[in-house]
Amino acid sequence: NIRDLQADKQRKINVFLNENRALFFETITPMLLSFIDELGVEVLLDKDTVALASTGSDITNITIKKVNDQFKSFDKQASAAASLCQVHFAESLDHKKLACKLQYPDMGSAVQADLKQLKLIFSLYEKYDSAISTKSIHEELSDRLKEELDYSHEIKNMNLYRDILSNFDEITLPEPINNLSTDRLLTMTRIDGIKIMQFISENSDIEIRNKVAMNMFKAWYVPFYQYGIIHGDPHLGNYSIRPDGGINLMDFGCIRIFRPDFVTGVIELYRALRDDDKELAVSAYERWGFKNPTK
What we know:
Order of helices and strands: HHEEEEEEEHHHEEHHEEEEHH
Structural class: alpha+beta
Number of helices: 9
Number of strands: 13
Strand content: 15-25%
Low-confidence stretches: 35-66
Shape: globular
Distance between the termini: 52 Å
Largest sheet: 5 strands, antiparallel
């Protein structure tokens, strides 16, 4: 019908703008920023009015208001960028160093378009190999990506991890700032450290390397083994290293909670591989939901 055709056309436009954001904003953004500066108005937090503010190809999906009402300073230039968002450093009125995670404009439509294409790819794969059903895989990816777009959900995840790891002084997590956050703007305390690859290149001491490795192990496996929760995006960019060998853990958009018997299956499989116990391995896979696994 007409409404579906209009919605499909709008999605295509949104995807095009998202894919060509750098070219688009190199011309539009400077004019917008000039207009904002003339009004004495800046980037800020209002859920109702959406504005695009940026320097060069950096885009921030936040809204316009007088910045002095909320921040002492707010860097227009992003310090880091990812597929769904970018991070800007800021300072609060009470002089706290902050990191602000800002979602790109209309990422919901872009993600929906990608998921639609992925579903098509999965269906083609199943025609080639029907041994694995991709329906549950697509549902899982869809659920996790939708959660990543909701920063109010990420704040809950961050607070959960802060509670779980509160007794581990060797692991530092940011603290969310609720009154400076919205569904698409996540403001948190800034935690500083050096990137893992830089740490490796600058430190050959095996003792400090082992200390960092153990702390990374704790950050990932303590929540999993004790609470059935995993950090679903444990790539190197989400860790940084403190001078004392402690670690900073960041980005809590993708968190997965598992039922207890699933965790038991993980431990069983480890023991099965260690002891060459095929029966225990079968039991582990059954706990994960595999039906009639063969040896």
